[in-house]
Amino acid sequence: MGGFDINPDYAVVVSDGWYESHFGGAKDSYPMVIVRVGNPDAIDAVKDAIESRINRREEVVDVSDSREMLGQYEEIYDQITLFLLGIGGIALVVAAVNILNVMYISVTERIKEIGVMRSIGGRCAGRSSGCSCTRR
Fold first, then answer.
1. Which of 6-10's residues contact partners 24+ apart within 8 Å by CB, and which partners?
2. Residue 133 forms beta bridges with which residues?
3. Residues 131, 114 contacting (CB under 8 angstroms)
4. Most C-beta atoms within 10 A of its C-beta, which of 86, 88, 91, 118?
C-alpha cells in the first residue's frame, strides 16, 4: 500500500516512552512519522508548525502532505497518457498510409485490367456500376 494513510493492518501505534524503552532513544530511530489531521483545511498550518519546530536551523526532515503525492501521481499519469497518445497517433498515421497504399495499388491494377479488356475488344457498359466489360 502506498501513501500516507495509516492502515491498522500494517501499522503499530505506540507512545514515545514505550518506543524509547524498547528501541533506545537514538535521534535517527524514526524512519517516518505520519501525522493525520482531522480538518483538511488545517494541513498547511500543521505542516508549517512541524517544519518550524523540527527544521529550525537546517532541514532535518522532509515534510510533505498527501496533496503533493497526489500531484506527483497526476503528473506521472499525464506523462503516461501523452506517451500513449503519441503511440496511438503514430499508429493512426501508419494505418492511413497503408490504406492509401492499398487503394492506390487497387486502382492502378484495375486501370490496367480495364485497359487489357478494352484492347481485346471489350467495352465498358456502365461506369457507375463498375466497369463490366463485354464483347460485341
1. 6/34, 6/36
2. 124
3. yes
4. 118
- Non-local (6+) Cβ contacts of 4 within 8 A are 34, 65, 66, 69
Taking alpha carbons only, the member of 14, 5, 15, 13 closest to residue 37 is 5
Query: How many CB atoms sit inside 10 A of residue 50's CB?
Result: 14
Q: What is the full per-residue pLDDT of the chain (136 aa) written as tens digits?
A: 445 566 666 666 677 777 677 766 665 566 677 777 888 888 888 888 888 877 777 766 777 787 888 889 999 999 999 999 999 999 999 999 999 999 999 999 888 888 887 888 776 654 444 555 555 5
The alpha-helical segments, DSSP class H, found in 1-136 are 16-23, 43-54, 66-119
Distance CA 31, CA 14 (A): 15
What pTM was estimated for this model as a whole?
0.50
